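Thread title: Can someone regenerate the structure for this chain?

I was given the following input by a collaborator and told the matching structure tokens would be attached. They weren't. Posting the sequence so someone can regenerate them.
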Amino acid sequence: MLKETNLYVRESKESGWDLIDPEEVQSELDQCIRLLSKRGKINFFDLAVLYAPTGTLQELAMANGWHKQYMKLANRFDALERKIKERHPDFYIIPHDVSQKNLEQ
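Best answer:
Regenerated them for you:
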């Protein structure tokens, strides 16, 4: 999911009302992907903010013509968040066994 999101972000231009520019979003996603590939833990809250309604990713998507794809990615993210909340009380830090399978794709 993160890699797929990053493909769209890489092709995006600033929307003018983003809190952070596409390069910063890409850097944040890249860092999460690297940490997960090394069995590290990431701050889930930062991702939740990116994928949130009216958040940076949605603004980028709307401004760059990939809003339908964003909605699919955000729905996948929301489903993963629910799953993590059920399994892990401290869900803002994702254990590697959950995140590796779902987020890296």
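Residues 2-103 form one domain.
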